[in-house]
Amino acid sequence: MLHVSPTLEGFRAALRRPSLTFAEISWRWTLGTTTCALFLFSLFEYLNTLPVTNGDAALLSTRHPALIGRALAHIFRGSLNRAAFATLLGALALAFLWIVSASFGRIATVRALLDYFAERRDLDGSDSVTRDSVKSRPFRTVIALNFLRVALVLAALLALVGAAILVSFASPAATPRPGLAFTLFLPLAGLICIAWATLSWLLSLAAIFSVRDGEDAMAALSTAIVFSRERAGPTFAVSVWTGLAHFVAFSVASTAVSLPLSLIQFAPSRLVMAAVLFVSLVYFAVVDWLYIARLAGYICIAEMPEAPASSVATPVPPTPGQQFVSSGPVETSIDRDESILSDLPNLALET
After folding, report:
1. I need a surface site. Which of 4, 24, 182, 330 has the fewest CB within 10 A?
2. What is the C-alpha to C-alpha distance for residues 71 and 73, in angstroms, rounded to an integer?
3. What is the DSSP letter of 132?
4. pTM of the prediction?
5. Per-residue pLDDT tens for 221-254?
């Protein structure tokens, strides 16, 4: 068996199979474009329904902060309920669309990576394992896992709201202490975010075993927990290296975006926005490629054989009735010059 680096194998798989990155980009960018289009359409439709009287227009034209605030309060009066209801419906629709599209995309990429590493095992001469469950249809299980991820996001948001309400008791209206409330809110928010990120990562990892083994949601999640505990070192290495690559990509993209924005007073605004949009799309494409590399690294850990541990020979104790055989030569001759074997009396004492 060969020693392999899951991180390098993940990057190699992402380079050799660019179609996987294009597949990831296709469903992610389709969902993102749909979200942006739905947001803009809803925003424009909502603004068109707002009643603006001549008095409100006159107050807005004064450019006085107090008068503008009074006009806006009159314009938005009684319409926030509709906006909240429309936002809730849009969020539910987008959540359903994400669950379905993410399930199809994850099943396709995981199956392609499983076939890729199966070919690698055959080329390396390792023992290949035939799994009939790979050809199964784990769509329901992946749907359930993605539904749990959406429910987890909702639970995290509710937990943040609950934490904000809880720390508000430390800063009552009679004696406001916003600094203390903010200090108490930060560790609570950090714990909530860490718990959400960990559980979401486990659910995303469970999708691999659901597609590979054909298990249900709970069994796949249990397998993911055992896998992350038994193979913690390689899994942590893949996550850290891909995370560092993501951080580098984010730093480069932030620097590249700040350059055209600094020239917005001198360059045409459309050209600046086009440059910002181009850099953002390149960054999102690199992030999707890194996600495929990380996913391939996890599958490499689960699929590629491990190097056997060096075995140390230990002596086997003899069973009852069995003569112990030493590894060295056995002395069978008798030393006739030994004093204790002499016929003369008291010879052993004299010597």
Report:
1. 330
2. 5
3. G
4. 0.76
5. 999 999 999 999 999 999 999 999 999 999 999 9
